[in-house]
Amino acid sequence: MTSLEDFIVTPWEVEGVVDYRKLIERFGTQPLTDDLLKKTQELTKSELPIFLRRKFFFSHRDYDLVLKDYEEGRGFFLYTGRGPSGPMHIGHIIPFYMTKWLQEKFDVNLYIQITDDEKFFFKPELTLEDTRKWALDNILDIVAVGFNPDKTFIFQDSEFTKIYEMALPIAKKVTFSTARAVFGFNEQSKIGMIFFPAIQAAPTFFERRRCLIPAAIDQDPYWRIQRDYAESLGYYKTAAIHSKFFPPLTGISGKMSASKPETAIYLTDSPEDVKRKIWKFAFTGGRATAKEQREKGGEPEKCVVFKWLEIFFEPDDKKLEERYWACKRGEILCGECKAYLTEKVIKFLDEHKRKRKDAEKVVDKVKYTGGLASKMWESTYQGPRR
Amino acid sequence: MTSLEDFIVTPWEVEGVVDYRKLIERFGTQPLTDDLLKKTQELTKSELPIFLRRKFFFSHRDYDLVLKDYEEGRGFFLYTGRGPSGPMHIGHIIPFYMTKWLQEKFDVNLYIQITDDEKFFFKPELTLEDTRKWALDNILDIVAVGFNPDKTFIFQDSEFTKIYEMALPIAKKVTFSTARAVFGFNEQSKIGMIFFPAIQAAPTFFERRRCLIPAAIDQDPYWRIQRDYAESLGYYKTAAIHSKFFPPLTGISGKMSASKPETAIYLTDSPEDVKRKIWKFAFTGGRATAKEQREKGGEPEKCVVFKWLEIFFEPDDKKLEERYWACKRGEILCGECKAYLTEKVIKFLDEHKRKRKDAEKVVDKVKYTGGLASKMWESTYQGPRR
After folding, report:
1. Which of A95, B177, B245, B380 sits in a 20 to 30 Å window from B330, CA-based?
2. Taking the CA atoms of chain B, what radius of gyration do you get in angstroms?
């Protein structure tokens, strides 16, 4: 980060405290306005989920057109993904809850791409066996979120290789020079990496309807390639709604990263791990001493514990607001908030582990035999059936 | 071609009269020696085919090791291919006869890759539907050559997409810079093109035995990438035997090209087409006048008609030699040789068309249901079977 930049957001790097209003300008996306939220509420006949209410999702491209397509009966579909290079943490799973809400309320198809090829290409130390193993592991976590098994297709690129066929048309459009600009390639980049943007764009062409991608805003540049060429291929430019970053335990700048274990809470962490990590690493907006805090009040804006409650763990709006003011007025100390969050996270993980166990029975459906999955597998020749 | 170069051979350009001995040095391949041919004869307990007898195949990489592997029971397999961008001509089909001989005599598996993806990427004017149409058309011509339907697998990349999975390991090794050096890419090359070398190399990893590729020598650079990385991936460096170029009707420099119709005889040409093309375009070693030819004799070394007889159309060694000397001594004129070749070519095409008709019944076997084909399709998950 140079001294001229206050923050950096690229698909491979998030640094500094992000000013999300500035980011919308830089990226040329649209703010998710109150009008659009109201429209969402009307069309779904539902209360907004906290992700929208509290503007964790804050920006979009063509989400207005998605709602219009829905309203006028043309429909749309959802697409998201996961790069399986290790165990999933809380920052990974939360966007899937937003996706689940969208699927449920709009009753639409959802495609989840597990990029075991991408992680194999981009992580020198991982074998294909490794990324496939993580794929199966991560899929259990994703299925545990609870998607409609007949309208969800989860696929691994190295297995659902029809993705290669679907990638051909866009792979004929995108030049090395364009891919380099978006992905930061150089002369030494491997040809697998260079091709990957085509594989990533392919699911946006799975249906001749508008595709909506819920994802963190740093992923937006990837979809610009798709948007540049989609119409010339006879498809819609993909739409997206963008979330902010789920902050690492250690501070509200950057994003939670699996490569720095102290910044993240894993879905497999034990209650003791959770307790220890939040206690030891969670960055708060507290003052140097309890006395000072009682006098001046805390700074919830800078507090990771508060952010986690705001984004996901305190669904009750009233309670969240009370906590905010109690902190500001110095009525509560950081230890109390940490304990509260710890309890919420442990409960969430507990429930997640139970649902993950049940997910084992559903995996086959979303991967192979469910309504959407079997349709996807059957749509091309798959060898002799005897 | 600069004035310093007497000929050029790259995968995308053949110009000038090729000095094949020099080419062996330039490319760093090995000459196909009499010892190797003798060994081939011994192991196959067969007479050598004219392609070997007359050194149309003249160079190799590791063919000696292939024979050793065969002799010692480790075996090997064959791999060749075809880029389906239009109708096949005689220059395209002849190498398949060499491949057929090898399969028959060594009784080995043969994989034939139909690169409908490559031709789609590299030919701006062709759609995927076009290259797939040509794939089906060309496969009929190839099957007509008569391969063992239970030991041959013919596949289109856009359909047998498992090829993508097989390409992943090498796609993680090859850099843009390497691919550019071999394929002549630049900044504006499409990412599909850049990835294609990985797809082309993938079939050499279909079996953990040595792979033997029969191909024209201009294709050799493609396999250098495979040879650079194969051993680090736990496979053999691929072996190859290299042919000279089948000369265009219009002269012995360059190679027959589908984009210059007058230089080629297509497998679909009628007897009238053949007659007209050979009469009108065939470049001979004849003199300016019949009188001069009778006095000085012709120059069979420069004569395309003689070359075609030598490479394929005159299987009788004695007759070929007699013709050579009769020409040298001015005893025959070009018209006579042209008429002789015309008759041979018409007969060949006639038979080819008949075998092509029968091939329709075999296509399903070599693509899907035959011994080798069904094994290839069944080796990964292919969706729910109901």
Report:
1. B245
2. 21
Query: Rounded to the nearest 10 degrees, what angle do helices B220-229 and B176-183 cross at?
Result: 160
Q: Which amino acid is residue A127, in one-letter code? A: T
Largest alpha-carbon pair distance within chain A?
78
DSSP string, B239-272: EEEEE-PPPPTT-SSS---TTSGGG--BTT--HH
pTM attached to this predicted model = 0.93
Instruction: Find the helix packing angle between B90-106 and B34-44, rounded to 10°.
Output: 60
The residue count of chain A comes to 386
For B337-364, give the DSSP string: HHHHHHHHHHHHHHHHHHHHHHHTTTHH
CB pairs under 8 A, 24+ apart, for A32-39?
Answer: A32/A57, A32/A58, A32/A59, A32/A60, A32/A63, A32/A241, A36/A60, A36/A63, A36/A64, A36/A67, A39/A64, A39/A67
Backbone angles phi, psi at A267, to 5 degrees: -65, -15
Q: What is the pLDDT of residue B340?
A: 98
Q: Tell me the backbone φ, ψ of residue A39, rounded to 5 degrees.
A: -60, -45
Give chain B's domains with CATH numbers: 2-249 (3.40.50.620), 261-359 (1.10.240.10)
Asked if B385's CB is within 8 angstroms of A383's CB, the reply is no
Rounded (5°) CA angle A258-A260-A263:
90
The structure tokens listed for B186 are 């630049």
Q: Which residue carries 């089906």 as its tokens? A: B136
Half-sphere exposure of B261 (CA within 13 A, CB side): 7
Distance from CA of A259 to the nearest CA of B (A): 22
The residues, ordered by sequence, that sit 6+ positions from A23 with a Cβ below 8 Å of its Cβ are: A7, A9, A59, A217
Q: How far is CA A223 from the centre of its chain?
A: 14
Select the residue of A162, A165, A171 nearest B190 (Cβ to Cβ). Answer: A171
A195 closest CB neighbour out of B191, B382, B386:
B191
Mean pLDDT calculated for residue range A234-241: 97
What is A196-259 written as a DSSP string? HHHHHHGGGGSSSSEEEEEEEGGGHHHHHHHHHHTGGGTSPPPEEEEE-PPPPTT-SSS---TT
Q: Using one digit for the tens of pLDDT, what is the confidence trace for A85-106? A: 999 999 999 999 999 999 999 9
Chain B residue with Cα closest to A382: B382
The pLDDT assigned to B379 comes to 77
Q: How far apart are CA A311 and CA A315, in angstroms?
A: 9
CA distances B207 to A94, A117, A333, B78, B152, Å, are 43, 22, 66, 10, 13
